[in-house]
């Protein structure tokens, strides 16, 4: 089976968020096998894609658990399919996932993902969150997957060094930390910490932007954003809120390809 490592939400190798993509060849594989491959790759997510009639089945695993939604590994999957000639230039791939039907469309040198919005409702901070972050947030909200925390400034987001052991005890997938952009280069910036899911800090998190888009739309008075995830690797996203959907567009770069021998 073909296996790729692809840097997503970047046009430059060794930037963005690396994901592994496994093109399943029709042989039946068990969930435990997919989890073992993801642990072997030791990336924030490994995607497994398999033909379903004219569409595709898609699943995502961290080194520790299966997740219900992953943006950068979906972008990486569509990029691998383009390079292998499985997806035609300018075409759309339809993926059946635990989060419903998702689409990835190639256009204008970008791949745009069509994902469900995950609105974060205002919430009291859970026990340990403020202590783990080390500063008082402007707002706290919670989506189906994560807590979303707005900090006063972009500098606060970029310099944050949270207590990961404390974050690990909070019973959610992860913690999104965000602020307005400071100089007009980006509408907002964010970081994403998910130690409870086996990923201390995710470099670029597409699914987190499914909550960030509806969060920032009323605050910034716009529907399309240029966003930056300020991890050490960094990543740039074009994010559009379209009703109850979020469109995430970016580039990707293949770092290596090979074959699974087990």
Using brief descriptors, characterize the structure shown.
Diaminopimelate Epimerase, Chain A, domain 1, alpha+beta, 18-stranded mixed β-sheet, 18 strands, 2 domains, globular, 6 helices
Question: Please, could you describe this protein's structure?
Answer:
Helices cover 21% and strands 41% of the residues. By secondary structure, the chain is an alpha+beta fold. It folds into 2 domains: 2-115 and 248-259, Diaminopimelate Epimerase, Chain A, domain 1, CATH 3.10.310; 121-243, Diaminopimelate Epimerase, Chain A, domain 1. The protein has an 18-stranded mixed beta sheet that branches. A hairpin with a 4-residue loop joins β4 and β5 (66-67). The protein is globular, with a radius of gyration of 18 Å. The model has no long low-confidence stretch (mean pLDDT 95).
């Amino acid at each position: 089976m073909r296996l790729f490592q692809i840097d997503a939400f970047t046009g430059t190798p060794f930037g963005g968020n690396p994901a592994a993509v496994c093109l399943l060849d029709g042989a039946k594989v068990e969930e435990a096998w997919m989890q073992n491959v993801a642990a072997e790759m030791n990336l924030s997510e490994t995607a497994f894609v398999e033909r379903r009639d004219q569409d595709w089945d898609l699943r995502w695993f961290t080194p520790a658990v299966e997740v219900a939604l992953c943006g950068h590994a979906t972008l990486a999957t569509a990029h691998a399919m383009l390079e292998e000639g499985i997806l035609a230039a300018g075409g759309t791939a339809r993926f059946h996932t635990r989060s419903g039907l998702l689409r990835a469309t190639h256009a204008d040198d970008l791949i745009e993902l069509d994902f469900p919005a995950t609105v974060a409702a205002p919430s009291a901070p859970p026990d340990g969150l403020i202590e783990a972050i080390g500063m008082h947030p402007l707002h706290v909200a919670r989506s189906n997957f994560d807590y979303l925390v707005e900090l006063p400034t972009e500098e606060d987001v970029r310099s944050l060094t949270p207590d990961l052991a404390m974050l690990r005890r909070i019973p959610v997938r992860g913690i999104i930390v965000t602020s307005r952009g400071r100089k007009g280069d980006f509408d907002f910036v964010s970081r994403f910490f998910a130690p409870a899911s086996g990923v201390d800090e995710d470099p670029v998190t597409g699914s987190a932007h499914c909550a960030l888009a509806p969060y920032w739309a009323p605050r910034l008075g716009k529907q399309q954003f240029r966003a930056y995830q300020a991890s050490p690797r960094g990543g740039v996203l074009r994010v559009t809120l379209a009703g109850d959907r979020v469109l995430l567009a970016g580039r990707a770069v293949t770092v290596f390809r090979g074959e699974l021998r087990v």
